[in-house]
Amino acid sequence: MLSKDIEMIIVKYKKYIDAFEEFDRTGKWPLEKTRRSFTIQQAAYQKLKAEAKKRKMSMSDLLDELIENA
After folding, report:
1. Number of H helices and number of E strands within the chain?
2. DSSP 22
3. How far apart are CA 51 and CA 66, in angstroms?
């Protein structure tokens, strides 16, 4: 059985462990960012911009976080 410290590390860094597993399987890094263009309503853009500023994050990082947690 794993010690509690190792279990905590596995839970805390699961995103990166999964990324290494994906790299081993495919040979591509799943954490690379891709630039895309899309259209959203002005009100949604203003809310996204305000929330990103409040959290001191870029809007793309905030979107990544929101999508990951959805």
Report:
1. 4, 0
2. H
3. 11
Cα distances (Å, whole numbers) of residue 16 to 6, 21, 29, 51? 15, 9, 10, 25
The residue with greater pLDDT, 45 or 10, is 45
- Distance of alpha carbon 49 from alpha carbon 4, whole angstroms: 39
Contact 44, 17 (CB under 8 A): no
Sequence ranges of the domains in the chain: 1-32, 36-70
CA dihedral 53, 59, 61, 63 (to 10 degrees): 120
pTM of the full structure = 0.59
Per-residue pLDDT of 11-66, as tens digits, reads: 888 888 888 898 899 988 877 788 889 899 999 999 999 999 999 999 999 998 89
